[in-house]
Amino acid sequence: KVDRFLHAMRLHDDQLIDISARFQAEMRKGLSSDSNAAASVKMLPTHVRSTPDGSEKGQFLALDLGGSKFKVLQVKVREGMGIRRGGVEMEEKTYPIPEELLTGRETELFDHVAESLKDFMTERNISPEKKHPLAFTFSFPCEHTALNKGSLINWSKNYQVRGLRDKDVVQTLRKAIDRSGGMDVEVLAMVNDTVATMMTCGFDDQYCEVGLILGTGTNACYMEELRHVDLVEGDEGRMCVNTEWGGFGDDGSLNDYLTEFDRDIDAASNNPGKQTLEKMVSGMYLGELVRLVLLKMAKLGLLFEGHVSEALRTKGAITTANVAAMEEYKNGLKNTEAILTGLSLTPSPEDCVAVQHVSTIVSFRSSNLVAACLAAILSRIRQNRCLRTMRITVGVDGTVYKTHPQYPKRLHKVVRRLLPECHVRFVLSDSGSSKGAALVTAVAQRLASRRQQVDETLAPFKLTQEQLMLVKSRMRAGLEAGLKNEGSSAVKMLPSYVYRTPDGTEHGKYLALDLGGTNFRALLVNFKTGLQQNTRLNHKIYTIPVEIMQGTGEELFDHIAQCVSDFLDYMGMKNAQLPAGFTFSFPCEQTALDTGTLVSWTKGFKATDCEGHDVVEMLREAIKRRNEFDLDIVAVVNDTVGTMMSCAYEDPQCEIGLIAGTGTNVCYMEEVKNIEKTKNISKNQKREEEGKGDKNEAGSSDDEITRMCVNTEWGGLGDDGSLEDIVTPYDGEVNQMSVNPGRQRFEKLTSGMYLGEIVRHVLLDLTSGGLLFRGRVTEALKTPGIFETKYLSQIESDRVALLQVRSILQQLGLEGTCDDSIIVKEVCGAVSRRAAQLCGAGMAAVVDKIRENRRLERLTITVGVDGALYKLHPHFSRVLEETVRSLAPQCSVTFLPSEEGSGKGAALITAVA
User: Where is the composition biased (Basic and acidic residues) (predicted)?
Assistant: First the structure.
């Protein structure tokens, strides 16, 4: 009988899934700035950016205003003796709010609040001398612009105070405190009771990221990804969003689920058309819904033999507490009979069973609707975080949840049925919203303190324009000193004996050999001229085993000769005598294009009997020993020079080469008259080296050499101590731990081999100081080299959400929170940005020098670039280019990434020669 009568209130799972999907759509609408105004679910940002992590502490005053009573509290979080470890201690006093203040002016209400606070402080001997942080729980819908700024949207719960709507509530409170006088308090946070509930439960359970109120009213909040919250600037991290879900359905989206009883409730309320969901589920209305059902059934003769008492006709005669009593497991029927008798009815045993069933259906529908909306929130969190399964805790408060005997169990069961992939735990808030407000304040203080300490740690990495100008002038001084003959310079300025860049007439087949790291590459390059000028390129890559890298020089060059032999076999060209270029990416002193004396090994090479020897001669001897093929080695070039030549083939204005990868270096076309190291080479010898003369401008004739490419080896800048004022203690540690302490100081600030290690040292320091990873220093974090530079590129990518940052950190054995991920991303950003700016300052010195060499008002030039840092890091290239523009405003510099790298460049140098 009852089931048939109330069939519209019985919701099956398909309907709940449908309601859940509708609620999710409303959430998206509320989060978007385009549709928020029209959304029934307001999704208000709270500016609460973190749940407790367990390290919060301090003493706070708290005010709790949200019902007929008002509370003032002193909350101690881990302060003083007698508090259990990790606990919170509260002293409180309740102050009644006179009825007339609920309809009076806002100044009267807030003056009463301020006077109550003053009374509490006096009574508890809380010193007025010292500034006290204050947390304010204000359980009415507010639009927040900051944690301690929020304007009232509308009153609820019988409050109709005049003059506060659209005004800043915190500012109003501050003015009332000032009027009262004698108190030094700072209002740090204003929060909704839902948010406070989440924070209270979050203090004891780190998985708690949802707050739920099920009492006189209903609401929910949760931690949303900031990138989805349009109404707040920024996209890093999370923010608690107060859904104000009681308004779900105000736009008609629940009309097909409303019964005649819901419509009657709404029509008789003081806000018709508003808070649709709240009127279907909350404690203020459940008893009244049951009364309206019983009244209709009685009128139809389905109950009490058609008798309707005056009490049953009276609004509010059945309360939600009565509904809970009627559904008690053992005494439910007895309670039902007593309640009905109290309404001047004479129920039969069948009537009592039917009425109890009505109560069950009404309250069951409530828990089903709450479960559907909660499932939408949990499902959104899971999707945001790209998780297949998720463990999460929901903090709950409110009289319906606390006092209704069956409600929690029903709610839990339906949520778990709708979301089998989520492990959901429900935790009851034990000390209400005041503790939560204090914890919001404590978290805000912790974050502010941590923010300050992190900022102080990263401050030395943030270079000013003045500092960058200093680096530019020191690089310029290093370039000038290196060009001179006398004394040793930190910037080596090695002549390359490459006198000109390609002019497009190059043609023929050339072999290029490229040794720069753990791989050796052999290339056959075929240049074709004509209208369809193009290049054919074949290559093979060979690994250099560690035992050969660190064996004898003879073994190393024999291995290279064997690789060349294999490549010539592969290409079927064993008998052709080809001109070859040898890219050798280690510092070499050259006295001609085809001689290069190794200054020192880098990048893990330690082959004996090579340093101080001509590497071209060593390769020629290895080829002779093999006696299988013949090569004409025309040129030995550095990878930087090879890169410049490769790009100059595409763009004739390319006269600078830059490597920004594992290592860093630059070469450029310098005026020969400035290179004192080559003064002992006769003009005739130079002419032989360069053939037909120089194609560049500045009045050169065909038989006059004016420029030569110089390999700066700029990574050595600072080896003379000239960068000491910008290096940080972390750079010092990386330098000390390196294989060449005191050398290549500029390279150690700017190149891929070292950036990850600098980041690791910063993270280690922040963790030791308790600012990261809950202060837990893992073995992984102590392992040198574990934080590779590729992780910087991944972490700093704009397409990578914080969740993926956490996943990268987990691969490294670092379990961090969302807040930890933000800080790690900031550290990576500070280190890589500084690297790009320093490279930009160095490049500004180079281009300005070229401009002045050529006596030009404005220089237009192209830089050929190679290296993973430049090509793969999401921001490095942009910051580098911005810095050059800012520090060398009279130079128009284009950066051209090298397609084929230095191998093709070596072939081009051979072709040009």
Answer: 680-697
Choose, from 78, 238, 521, 834, the residue flagged as catalytic. Answer: 521
Task: Give the three-class secondary structure for 3.
Answer: helix
Residue 487: φ, ψ to 5°: 70, 165
29-61 b/e (C-beta count within 10 Å ≥ 16 → b): bbbbeeebeebbbbbbbbbbbbbbbeebebbbb
**Residue 878 buriedness (CB in 10 A; 0-12 / 13-18 / 19+):** exposed
**SS3 per-residue string spanning 807-844:** HHHHHCCCCCCHHHHHHHHHHHHHHHHHHHHHHHHHHH
List strands edge to edge, sheet with 58-65: 88-96, 69-77, 58-65, 132-138, 185-191
- 639 labelled catalytic: yes
* Neighbour count for residue 462 (Cβ, 10 Å): 12
Angle, alpha carbons 173-174-177 (nearest 5°): 90
pLDDT in tens, 402-440: 999 999 999 999 999 999 999 999 999 876 677 888 888
8 Å CB contact between 704 and 692:
no
Cβ(84)–Cβ(112) below 8 Å: no
- CA of 765: how far to CAs of 22, 805, 814, 817, in Å? 48, 20, 14, 17
Q: Which of 585, 793, 898, 902 is catalytic?
A: 585
Are the beta carbons of 38 and 165 closer than 8 angstroms? no
Report pLDDT digits (tens) over 446-502: 888 888 999 999 999 999 999 999 999 999 999 999 998 666 789 999 999 998 888
- The answer to whether residue 278 scores a pLDDT higher than 50 is yes
- Total Cβ atoms within 10 A of residue 659: 29
- Main-chain phi, psi angles of 223, to 5 degrees: -85, 110
Q: What confidence score (pLDDT) does residue 694 get?
A: 42
| 87-105 confidence digits (pLDDT tens) | 788 888 999 999 899 889 9
Q: State the Cα–Cα distance between residues 613 and 601, nearest whole angstrom.
A: 12
855 in the Ramachandran plot: left (φ > 0), alpha (ψ -120 to 50) or beta?
A: left
CA distance 188 to 92: 19
DSSP codes joined into one string, 746-796: HHHHHSHHHHHHHHHHHHHHHHHTTSSGGG---TTTTSTT-S-HHHHHHHH
Amino acid at 604: G
Residue tagged active-site, from 250, 558, 614, 639: 639
- Nearest CA to 669 among 910, 864, 871, 892? 864
Q: Which residues lie across from 65 on neighbouring strands?
A: 70, 138
pLDDT band at 715 (very low <50, low <70, confident <90, very high): very high
Q: Residue 692 contacts by C-beta under 8 Å, 6 or more apart in sequence?
A: 702
Confirm whether 238 is a catalytic residue.
Answer: no
Is residue 718 predicted with pLDDT exceeding 70? Answer: yes
- Looking only at the bridges linking them, the beta strands covering 631-637 and 707-711 are unpaired
SS3 content of the chain, % helix, strand, coil (to 5): 45, 20, 35
Query: Is pTM beyond 0.90 here?
Result: no
Cα separation of 517 and 708, whole Å? 26
Written as six digits, the tokens of 703 are 């038989």
Neighbours of 273 (CB within 10 A): 12
- On whether the CB atoms of residues 497 and 593 are closer than 8 A, the answer is yes
Please report the domains of the chain, with CATH numbers, ordered by start residue.
1-449 (3.40.367.20)
d(CA 193, CA 205): 18
The Cα 590–Cα 581 span in angstroms is 14
For residue 585, indicate whether it is catalytic: yes
Pick from 244, 241, 207: nearest CA to 394: 207
Identify the CA nearest to 398 among candidates 369, 424, 435, 429: 429
- The amino acid occupying position 771 is L
Which residues does residue 711 pair with via DSSP β-bridges, in sequence order? 494, 667
